[in-house]
Amino acid sequence: MAENEMTPKERVMAVYRGGKPDRIPVMPCFWYLIPARMSGRPFYDIQEPFWYWQWQAGKYYGIDQRVAPKLTWKNENVEKVEERHMDREGRLIIRTTYHTRYGTLTSRCLHPPDGAPWDIERPVKDIERDWRAYEEILFCDPLGLDTSDFDQCLETVGDDAVVPAVIGGLFTDMLADAREGGMERAIYDLYDYPDFFAQVRGRYVRHRAELTEAILKKTDPDFIFIATGATTAGVIGPDMWRTWNLPGVKAITDVAHAHGKPVHIHLHGHCRAILPDIANLGIEMVCPLERPPGGDIKDLRQVRGEIAPSLGFMGNVSTTTTLLTGTPRDVEREVRECIEAAGSYPFILSTGDQVSPLTPEENIRALIAAGRKYGIR
Hints:
Strand content: 15-25%
Number of domains: 2
Radius of gyration: 21 Å
Number of helices: 15
Largest sheet: 6 strands, parallel
Structural class: alpha/beta
Strand order of the largest sheet: 9-10-11-12-13-14
Distance between the termini: 19 Å
Shape: globular
């Protein structure tokens, strides 16, 4: 390491803390797919903690990496039983049965050998019959937190990577994950049972705050990472997003800030309409700022000029066009464009969500090299 050169953790945290890094951090999104490829095994057969392969991916490419160890909660009110079998296409299917005091629920998840898993059956088939049992699963005791994997990760990676505590914060994500029929069914439910779900939302918001408090009392993450799923503002609309999701995001943010921890929120897809809401909460970082067609951040410079400078930006290099199908020269041009658009504001160079394992190696290397070349401010 050269004299006065920051470590990856120091560099990234300087941005989160409003300081000046030695250069713009370069952190392409190696969340699931690239680390899984490096392991050489299917997702469902990876033996090490997954953060280990995220860490190894960061070291291999020499990037400013982020790793995500597990935080789990014990739940004495739920007995969870898993059954596993392989289908004829070599995909693992896990059937989970949840035995609660108020009934039994089942779900199934399909794990392909070369990609991330997805749900093919969700536990709540009927709101009136199943919801009370699902609340037994959802509202675990915050004091049952197990940080063993997280603490091992902190000790192992040192300054090679930042280690956030990941917590889901969106109420509509929770409902879509729970409900048979997914997001489409969840939207209908919010219109069919508005008063009922307003009460559930209140309890959910309090519980998210309690979980965040438990995390920050028991371990020491670099920041809080609010994970989001399919319920983007582009899917459910900005007004519905604000009504059902903003209270939970605010609750998590308030607790984190009370403990002196920065907050990062991940917003898939179209997010421009709600960026002012995110900035108003004092959140420090938002990603991945996807370009069209997946997102709506086409002109990063213009968007940067509309948003409070305290909100840092991370992302905006297109994974599905430039990085996947472009040339190294295309990648370098887009990286330079992003860095120039960010100006002197907080910025981490990254991709518009996950880097595909089909991405040409020369394009990944071009992104990293260009980030270092143009990232000296």
